[in-house]
């Protein structure tokens, strides 16, 4: 019965403290992973703050795990001890519902989040169902790959699910932890890429990350001038904007796709959307198959998150750095 050394919040908004727990017996289809590194996502902060009302304490955050398999259940055939793997938002699925059987495991209503009702990767080890664990391609820099498992997966999935073509024009709202990876993936996908950012200082940086063009998202005239330009807009921000102004920049059949968790209702005029046959969509992270596709694509095209690194023991310093909004652009904890 392995004992895990981890860092946990004992209550909502608490600092993370050393915490030990026992894993129990390994399941037939489970694997244990020795954590080499783990990214910190804003979702980890939301869980520590119990912002979504689903947190259970003590809570060990961490769902962007890179590590090596140390043990595998007897029913595991695609992973072996010693494999370097990644674990993202989900640590298990029911495997039998219509969503799972049709390849949409991420939409399984019984899917098991890595950090909800169980303990995550701010630890020396973590356990998961093998279906949710993917091998990390050798071509990827494993030390920086953790954020691909959640943030990278979130921005990559719409390109697959919405059938975005290399000739498409794609815009990204917000150049941060999600947005900078969206620029990289969109450029590597072959698209013409535009960055919407409220920060003048980030416009040139956005171009260095893959954008061909940059528009000040606070400049109403500049947004208006982009009318009818985009097949897809990815919104990575969690604040309300003038969504009708952005809808007007879509081409017919275009999508305004939400990745940032805006909590306020959207005020969008239906008539222009109707006549342009446009759509407002959103998505969570992807299925295991799309995770593998994302990792293979990132390896082939050298799509690597921009990361800052902290030792796992400095987890509270890292969390405060993220909370301050100063992270550039993803933080990784190293064991």
What does this structure look like?
With 335 residues, the protein is of the alpha/beta class. It has helices at residues 42-48, 98-101, 151-161, 179-189, 201-208, 220-225, 243-247, 270-275, 288-301, 315-323; strands spanning 3-9, 16-22, 30-40, 65-72, 84-87, 90-92, 112-113, 125-129, 133-135, 169-173, 192-197, 213-216, 230-235, 250-258, 279-282, 307-311, 330-334. Strands 3, 4, 5, 8, 9, 16 and 17 form a seven-stranded mixed beta sheet that branches. Strands 12-11-10-13-14-15 form a six-stranded parallel beta sheet. The chain has a two-stranded antiparallel ribbon with strand order 1-2. The model has no long low-confidence stretch (mean pLDDT 96).
- The geometry reads as globular
Using the CA coordinates, give the radius of gyration: 20 Å
Unreliable stretches: none
Number of helices: 10
Q: What composes the largest sheet?
A: 7 strands, mixed
| Assigned CATH architecture of the largest domain | Alpha-Beta Complex
> Roughly what percent helix?
10-25%
**What share of the residues does DSSP label as strand, in percent?**
25-35%
Structural class: alpha/beta
Order of helices and strands: EEEHEEEHEEEHEHEHEHEHEHEHEHE
Can you identify the CATH superfamily of the largest domain?
Medium-chain alcohol dehydrogenases, catalytic domain
CATH class of the largest domain: Alpha Beta
The overall pLDDT average reads 96
The CATH topology of the largest domain: Quinone Oxidoreductase, Chain A, domain 1
Distance between the termini: 22 Å
Number of domains: 2
């Amino acid at each position: 019965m392995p004992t895990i050394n981890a860092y946990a919040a004992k209550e909502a908004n608490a600092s993370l403290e050393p915490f030990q727990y026992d894993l129990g017996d390994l399941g037939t289809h489970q694997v244990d992973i020795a954590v080499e590194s783990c990214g910190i996502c804003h979702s980890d902060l939301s869980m520590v703050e119990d912002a979504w009302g689903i947190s259970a304490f003590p809570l060990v955050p961490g769902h962007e795990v890179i590590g090596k398999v140390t043990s595998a259940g007897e029913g595991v055939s695609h992973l072996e001890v010693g494999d370097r793997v990644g674990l993202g938002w989900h640590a298990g699925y029911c495997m039998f519902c219509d969503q799972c059987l049709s390849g949409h495991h991420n939409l399984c209503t019984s899917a098991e989040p890595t950090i909800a009702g169980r303990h995550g990767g701010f630890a020396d080890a973590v356990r998961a169902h093998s279906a949710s664990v993917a091998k990390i391609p050798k071509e990827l820099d494993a030390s920086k790959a953790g954020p691909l498992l959640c943030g990278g997966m979130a921005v990559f999935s719409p390109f697959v699910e919405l059938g975005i073509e290399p000739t498409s024009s794609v815009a990204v709202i917000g150049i941060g932890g999600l947005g900078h990876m969206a620029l990289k993936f969109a450029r590597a996908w072959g698209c013409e890429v535009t960055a919407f950012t409220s920060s003048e200082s980030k416009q040139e940086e956005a171009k260095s990350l893959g954008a061909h063009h940059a528009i000040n998202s606070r400049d109403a005239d500049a947004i208006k001038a982009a009318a009818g330009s985009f097949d897809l807009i990815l919104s990575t921000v969690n604040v309300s904007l003038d969504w009708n102004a952005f809808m007007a920049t879509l081409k017919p059949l275009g999508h305004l796709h939400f990745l940032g968790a805006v909590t306020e209702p959207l005020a969008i005029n239906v008539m222009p959307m109707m006549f342009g046959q446009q759509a407002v969509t959103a998505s969570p992270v992807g299925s295991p198959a799309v995770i593998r596709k994302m990792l293979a694509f990132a390896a082939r095209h050298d799509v690597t998150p921009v990361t800052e690194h902290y030792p796992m023991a400095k987890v509270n310093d890292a969390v405060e750095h993220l909370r301050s909004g100063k992270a550039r652009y993803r933080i990784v904890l190293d064991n």
